[in-house]
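Human:
Focus on the backbone:
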Amino acid sequence: MENYLTPNFAFAPVIPESAQGSRVWDTEGREYIDLAGGIAVNALGHCHPVLQAALNQQAAKLWHISNLYTTQAAQDLAQKLVENTFADKVFFCNSGAEANEAAFKLARKYAFDHFGAEKNEIIACVNGFHGRTLFTVSVGGQPKYQEGFAPLPAGITHIPFNDVAALEAAISDKTCAVVIEPVQGESGVLPADIEFLQAARRVCDENQALLVLDEVQTGMGRTGKLFAYEHYGVLPDIVSSAKALGAGFPIGAMLTSDKVAPSLSLGSHGSTFGGNPLAAAVGSAAFDIINDAQTLAHVNAQGARLQDALRQIGEEFGLFEQVRGLGLLIGAVLSEAYAQRAGEFVKVALQHGLMILNAGSNVVRFAPSLLLSDEDLQDAVAALRQTAQAFVQADK
């Protein structure tokens, strides 16, 4: 098949054509079990009938009207987010990068409004990932994503993840925000320590800085809570959300408090497509399913079962040295014998009918549907065992 797209993506050697639940079929009719979830996006699997109905109903009424107007669909989803989180106000956009861009701009604008232009420094974490805009890739602490795009925005300091002492040393009265992923997803599925997030809240308060949590990957039920900050006993000032928020339909959101929101004053920021009726209607329907006690309990139960299965496979084949994560965001760290070969393992898995991810070069990542069934989990574990066996035997 001829590729007409720019060369910044390395596509897998299959072309998905249709899907239902956690099953995907390619153009050759081969079936796959999806434990990747569109990189933690397809929170309710593929083609969920409730989401289809919401999309079709809205599509017959109104697609786009611009942000010169609000719509009932956007207000309904915003209300659900506000009533179930710390937040008082919501800004809608189209992606995680845009949500983080808005969050970082708001943090600087709030500091400018209340303390002056010199309070502009952002503290973020090494190996963080916050998107691919120039600002978000600069806040993200991974030089490989910054190479070739200099000069980068200034005023950003990176500290080691989970290092309280480094955070305390870095923060000052010039700091406007501390930015943290509750679970570092793209770089290895590494959960934050409770002490680290609680220290971040404390030092932000002491220095009149804002605590910004990037929940693009961890939000909307992925960790077994609606948002991951609920695991930590802290309340942020700003949270970014996307991925599972639309369960496959592009939408992003920045959530914040009435204390901070006024700095996003009239005309200070915007998004042409943000909060469009189609995305908001799908997001609202998805919210109702995700923010349900049974769904969240299911996430925790299936996540525990998948982690147990991965540990057993790891021990059986000497493949994984650690399995970690929260809910259905799970990372399996390769053992020393197979270090830095996560990408290879993902390719072998695809050959055995399994869609999974890597998180960096040394961690195999799993982010399946929050509704993953027992049957699909059982079949996926069997495929994982076959994958492990083939991967290990190829070295002998």
Q: What stands out?
A: Residues 49-290 form a domain with the Aspartate Aminotransferase; domain 2 fold (CATH 3.40.640.10).
